[in-house]
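Troubleshooting log. The previous structure file for this entry was overwritten by mistake, so regenerating from the original sequence record. Sequence copied from the archived sheet and checked twice against the printout by T.R.
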Amino acid sequence: MTCYLNQHYVPKYYFRMFTGGSQYIHILLNVHGRIIKNASIKGQCAKSRFYGTNNIEMIFSQLEANHSKALRQIIDQAWSPQPEQFESKHLAWLWEAILFQHARTELQIKKTAPAIGAFWMELFKDHLKRKADSDFYSKFIKEVKDGHVTISEPPQATSLRSIEIAMEGRLLISDLDLHILRNFSDYPFVFSDSPVVFCNTYYQNVTNRGVLGLQTPGLQIFYPLDSATMVMLSDDNVYKGNQLKSIFIDITERSDISQLNAIQLHHSMNTIYFAYADDEEYITSLWWAHKNRIIPPKIDFRMREGWLVDGKPPEGTLYQIYEPQLNIKLDLSFIECAPAKAKDFKFRRRNPELVEEHKKQILEKEHTSTRRISKK
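Regenerated output below.
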């Protein structure tokens, strides 16, 4: 059996889509803006046993075979003189590939783990408050406040849970409109070590709650596929513009390309990748333009008071875990949008029918798993 010790969280086939099959790519290190040319893709976005077992990596390799087909078809169709309609299975693979890539990175672990740990700590404190004597509880709380007690899990567990949730969610983004951005400017698309980026221009003024959920109105998802091609999924019920009437959007403005590259920079953990050495000056200037505005992505944990759930006060404490948007506001020339005011925000789903169907699928999966366990 092949032993998969060096496990990639951005697959090698994805790098090769940018390099034209070459095994080398150019890097910008986002901490200090250093450029490294002709780095081997073999060691990029990879760690020993990142996911854990050899079997898990083998399963992921099988998924990547389907995802690679879907992404390459997107590129082929984008530049074909006579593009054909996408096959339904390839669309399903595309949705899966997007959510899988978004969930599987080292950045996702870094974003998620502290919030999950804080949530578990609150649950444990509540448990002790109910079960332990007051003296023991007071001593424990002091230890927590002094930073002597934490709750955590192996990074592999955090990663696999994120991936499991993502893989169950592809139906929830199937109502987003698919657009393929074709880059006709002299600036290239770049990508980061976390290349799938969620944004929400429509709700850019809403900052005290999550607006990047899979069924949130206004969700935008960006995924560069090579230096000239990018997938954009968007909620065209709130975004307008003549170019959105077509699946293909041709971009000639440098400012549009730089904004789309900037969100890669803002959403990266350590590195930005680019295919052509001649673009070093542009990549460096992009870093200088944004380096002081980058706020590392994170997921926040909050305890809310005075909030309502379905119009009613919740029983007990309301816990909230959400991801704030990046510290950059998109203003793309091919999209017209009137951002909602924060005070006008009302929680709703884009497509309640899809949400109900998703719930049914989850319940059926759980029921099937329970029956299998009972038979054993």
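Residues 6-345 form one domain. Archived copy saved in two places this time.
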